[in-house]
Amino acid sequence: MTPEIETIGIADLFGPPSTARDRTDARIMAAASGIGFMAVRDFPGDDRLTPEGRAQLLRIFALPDEEKQKLLRWNFDRSKKNVYRGWFPLQPAAVSYKEGIDMGPDLANPADASVSDDPLCEPTPLPAEEALPGWRAAAADYYRAMETVGNALMRSIARGLGLPETIFDAYFDHGISTLRLIRYPLRDANAGVDTSGPEFAVVHKGETRTIIGREHADSGFVTLLAQDGVEGLQAKNLDGEWIDVPPANGTLAVNFGQLLERWTGERVRATRHRVIAPKTARFSIPFFYEPRVDAEIAPLPLTDADPFEPFLYGDHLWEAATNFVEMSGIKHLRQPRRAKAS
Fold first, then answer.
1. How does DSSP classify residue 287?
2. In the CATH scheme, what architecture does the domain 7-333 have?
3. pLDDT tens track of the chain, all 342 residues?
4. What are the C-alpha distances in Å from 309 to residues 95, 117, 262?
């Protein structure tokens, strides 16, 4: 029986046109238009997806609290200027029980840092080199590797839609992709939070499990997720059932976002997913492949796709991202830029 979440080798996406690449495109399109979730392997940079490679990035969680506090966002420390990038601490009463950091393209290309006043383009507060030797270089290498994979997948989707393979490239030139590092600790049973209600707990395979990542669909295009070998991520299949997304070394879990679903006339599916608590602390490393903040999203030349008014990616992203608990209290800090009337 074919597993509901397929693992696809994508080495042929990085080579010239071939029948093997065509077959890979077909498998990707089948997953994208079916369950909307897949895992990929065999790509440049997959050697970083080992326990040792992940540990190199996750060292940031071992920083002393005073070093983490230097990286906090404005909504957690009003003395900070950064509102979109930076550290978010644990929030004990929240369903999504996690801490972590959101990093932008300046991580990988500091010389190309934007001078825009748009908070979506703000620089990322990063730990000092002496606080975490070698970490910045490792994180930058990983960011660039994920950009390469994201571009290859978008080109594959374009071919699968019967469009020119480079149709998406210009949108992602100077994109604002986000690399996020997350730690999901075990929730303290003595913290005074009642986790017995339906918002906090579900029954999975006959066992009551605590939710630590609320059910949602990603808002954007493509998410590339490196897991740490610890189970907990689940996706909703076409029958509405929750199925486990197995973690495996050398692979990325890939899911598609609501904006790509809309842009492709629902030919690509945005899948709802969640995280349930494992028996130990869990770490994950999602990379959200994203276009330029001023990219104008307009209907693609696809038959039978519903028309929509063009809009700017940054406006969409800000509206969606600021609904998450770690972004609470910042929505008013950016006004829509709006697409120009055509």
1. E
2. Sandwich (2.60)
3. 345 789 999 999 999 999 999 999 999 999 999 989 999 999 999 999 999 999 999 999 999 999 999 999 999 999 999 999 999 999 877 777 889 999 999 999 887 777 788 999 999 999 999 999 999 999 999 999 999 999 999 999 999 999 999 999 999 999 999 999 999 888 766 555 665 566 677 777 777 777 877 888 888 899 999 987 888 889 998 888 888 888 888 999 999 999 999 999 999 999 898 888 877 888 999 999 999 999 999 999 998 888 899 999 999 999 999 998 899 999 999 999 986 654
4. 35, 25, 12
> What are the residue boundaries of the structural domains of the chain, listed by start?
7-333
Joined together, the tokens standing for residue 163 give 């469009």
Residues whose CB is less than 8 angstroms from the CB of residue 165 and which lie 6 or more positions away in sequence, other chains included: 155, 156, 158, 159
- Length in residues, the chain: 342
Phi, psi of 243 (to 5 degrees): -125, 150
Sign of CA dihedral 155, 157, 161, 162: positive
Tell me the pTM.
Answer: 0.93
Burial of 290 per CB tally in 10 Å (0-12, 13-18, 19+): buried
Question: Which residue from 287, 317, 295 is spatially nearest to 144, judged by alpha carbons?
Answer: 287
Whole-number Å distance between alpha carbons of 192 and 186: 14
Q: SS3 of 169, please? A: helix
CB proximity list for 223: less than 8 A, separation 6 or greater? 254, 255, 256, 257, 286, 287, 288, 289
CA 100 to chain centre: 13
Yes or no: say if 22 and 101 are a contact pair by the CB < 8 Å rule: no
| Cα 125 to Cα 29: distance, rounded to the nearest angstrom | 37
What secondary structure does DSSP assign to 50-81, as a single string? SHHHHHHHHGGGGS-HHHHHTTB-TTT-TT--
- Going 282 to 147 to 267 to 257, the CA torsion angle's sign is positive
Q: Residues 177, 146: contact at Cβ < 8 Å?
A: yes
Pairing of strands 7-9, 252-256: unpaired
Q: Which residues contact 324 (CB under 8 A, 6 or more apart)?
A: 96
